[in-house]
Write a structure and sequence with these properties.
The protein has an 8-stranded mixed β-sheet. The protein has a domain of 49 residues: Roll (Membrane-bound Lytic Murein Transglycosylase D, Chain A), CATH 3.10.350. Strand 8 and strand 9 form a beta hairpin. It is of the alpha+beta class and 404 residues long.
Amino acid sequence: MGPRMSGGRSRRRRRGGRRVLGVIVLLAIVGVVVWQWPSIVGSGPDDANAANQGEATKTDGPGTNRLGTPDLVVNRENRSPLTPARVDRGDTQPSPGRVPNTDFTMGGEPNANDGGSGRPSSQPETTPNDPVRQPETNAGFGVSAAVGEAVQQAEAHVAANRHVEARDVLNRALFRKDLNATDADLLRSRLSDLSETLTFSPRAYPDDTMADSYTVRSGDALSVIPRRAGLLVDYRLIQRINNISDPSKIRLNQKLKVLQGPFHAVVDKSAFRMDLYADQTDSAGNLLYIRSFPVGLGEYGTTPVGSWIVREAGKVVNPAWVNPRTGEKFDKNDPDIPIGERWIALKGTDSETELLGGYGIHGTNEPESIGMEMSMGCIRMLGSDVELVYEVLYEGVSTVQIVD
């Protein structure tokens, strides 16, 4: 009996020790909770929402600067700019349910009804066959530090009313060899905004070599001023930039802003984009970029790559046209004419294009086809865009390069 009683007391002592240890651990936990309670309360949902809101404020969308375009945003995401949809050039048949649109191609040109005017004997220093040097771009993402600095310099020039200097800074940056797609898009956007002031507004800047002033003389008509002043542009461009509603109503001694010209175009097939350049250069010798336009191209890749010039007597307002595939005839001023209200005929000037005929730049009655390959090979543009291009491209002088 004695030994059994001794074992019972031992077991009771062990159970009592465990209870004491448990109480000590519980008290320790309670102490820790009480000590950390302020920080636990401070990390509730309201504070989390405030932190998220603060982050959203830092990454919120861009504002607007003096050029009227979004502020510089450095994009570090691994994505490339979107390009319009196009037909796979490997296709040999039209897409199901789509009928190829009528368009102008080989086999005759629109009937000219816009006789045009005489041309000055002087020619630009560059010959028509000289290629237009384009900005070089490399694949990449986000605005580079060098381009960001150029944009800031241009902003400072604009703030000081030095728009010509701002254009020079941005134009030189556009021709950098280390540009990525985002750099190029940003620079084209800023330069296009500057062109609205420097090129396409009535305001003339004294140090702008592209523009000049002309005083209307006795016997002048708007249609003859380009010839008298030795300008390589259409008279409609003078009408446009001076906001003249009626070209027959100009006044003696009236001051007009005029552009020297000529202008040249580069069509980038992969981007469905036409870039317009003036023949004048920046301080580094690069042609001045003016602005860009979206275009539609030939189905199955049929718009030919190469060098072209605007054909002599090849520009027509409200052309008549015969569909070379169906023989259907469209009179001038027909609202349903597939090639729109402007036709700019192109003549090939290199070994790849000199034997090709029937290609040109024109409008379209299918604006949804812009950014796609749906024509018979010509370059389609929206109506308002082709009107401007018609005014700046000069017959026998302006070059058009089509590149992949």
